[in-house]
Design goal:
The chain is mainly alpha-helical. Helices cover 79% and strands 0% of the residues. The relative contact order is 0.24. It comes from Ameyamaea chiangmaiensis. This is Molecular chaperone DjlA.
């Protein structure tokens, strides 16, 4: 279960932008986990 990108993205996003940043960071982390970020 690839959860590290979501976790790291959520924490980094929360540190930068609060609740909304956590959601955006988790979404970007999910894209990085699934490999669709670089396509």
């Amino acid at each position: 279960m690839a959860m590290w990108g979501k976790l790291f993205g959520g924490v980094a996003g929360f540190a930068m932008g609060g609740g909304v940043g956590a959601v955006v960071g988790a979404a970007l982390g999910h894209a990085a986990d699934s490999g669709s970020l670089l396509q």
